[in-house]
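re: ur question from earlier - yeah i can do the single chain one, its not a big deal. heres the input i used so u can compare w yours
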Amino acid sequence: KADRKSAKHSATGKTKKIAVGEKVPDFEVTINGKKLKLSQLQKDGKLSKDGVVVLTFWCSFCHSCRHVERDLDKLAKQYKTKAAVIALDASGETEKTVAAFAKKRGLSLPIALNAKGTAADIFGVHVTTTTVIIDGKGVLRYCGQFGNKRTAYAEDALKAVLAGKTVQV
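and the output i got, formated as tokens:
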């Protein structure tokens, strides 16, 4: 069963990568000094009324992140309360560094820290600006590029998830 399979660990002790359509394990992030599990983010009605969570892997020292962070911040504002749109730093930066950088860049979206990189392991993410979308039932519905100059992949996927439709890849 996908639910049990997704939470298993490989022989190396690392979390096994899950695939689109599988249940996401309840991993932990830190936002504004507060440790929160994915399930807590999903239940926070101020973030998402239906529990949809969008995570874009991001860091302050990544060149490609500069190309998407404004659109990511805009997406967070546009879908406020419909979906929790969050930048996720899995590079080990400190909260102080990230907060100062976000303030300097005028970013207002939540930025979560996952210093041990467990979230990156779960989704098999090796590059920043990769975006994952988790539906209200905790199932991974999209894992891919945030977007480019021509196509807003993450926003298109988010619209499909919110409409209860299959994400076109």
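Helices lie at 2-7, 38-43, 63-78, 95-105, 118-123, 153-162. not sure if urs matches, ping me
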